Amino acid sequence: MYVHFPYCLAKCPYCDFVSYSSSRETIDGKGYADAVLLELAGRAGGATGRIVSSVFFGGGTPSLWEPRELGRVVHAVRSTLDVIDEGGASRTASSSPAATLEVTVECNPSSLDDRQASSLANVGVNRLSIGVQSLREDRLRYLGRLHDGDGARRAVRAAMNSGAARVSADFIFGLPGQTPDDARREVLELVELGLTHLSCYQLTIEPGTRFGELARRGRLPLADEGAVAESYAAVQDALEANGLRHYEVSNYALPGDECRHNLGYWHGDEYLGLGCAAVGFLLRQEPNEPGCRRSGVRWRNHASPRAYVEQTQANETEELDAETLMRERIMLGLRLDSGVDIDEAAKDLGAEGWTEERERAARKLERCDRLVRERGRIRIPKHAWLWTDAIARDLI
Q: Is residue 242 domain-shared with residue 357, that is, in the same domain?
């Protein structure tokens, strides 16, 4: 389950997510929680027979949400739907809360202190993901962040001391003036703080953002592509040397600390999206027999917080046929170090796996050493992960 919280104290210049700059005083956390709970009640019937393994509060800045209100949503999920239990099976809504339901909240250092972190843990949050992005003041200013390096360190320590079982941090590399050794030193400092999961993203310039407009006018300093590639390799080498497995293009974790929620996306699992601008996806409950063509539906909630609250379940829907589901399974699965099994996906979805075009593209990519085939499974070798998006496009 994904729950979107759309408010931030300031909009970062590189961010293209649906978020709105608001002061703490103008955020109506209770009214927004009420709307999310209404939507949950309306969608619960569509989730019959499914088990919730994770709840991810993203944004925006969910750490701005009053923990009491966020906790109401956590409690409603556990009391309304079937969730995973400590043994990995499901439990009924009448059973006691399951500690192993992964409940993640994205946090900014500017809104996470000891009190907030502990309060989140007390309402059932067991994973905190902190938007550190950098530990250097000059880079944080470039990125438009509200915190400084010491603020990031304090937020990580607060999360580590909160009682939440797991803590992750986001880091951005590929910034102008940043050397590969700079990137390596920063991620190693984060590991030394005790983090067991890191999401390391290359700075990308998206249309419609302030950075996108500055780049269009030629007024945005950018890093050299070669330095970006070297930083990617330096981060990978440093983290793997410290025992963190590079399990997805942008993600590293000690074994067992991988993000269950994001693994679900990359494996093509269903997800229930709640909140302003949230997206959800469910398969049709058709007989899943060999040769049966699967289909599904995807919805997107209203992007305006006010409109979402006023019309809680107003959304756009998209019908998904077996071929569309197959393309998405390949695109997402190729982000994992294990790749995706084309034959298995084709059998599951009732779609054609190895089309003539896909076969030709795969052979070409193999010759370029950008794809590995092991029977029906394909994966991208790590030295080619920087080209994951282009490789996926060739195959879908």
A: no
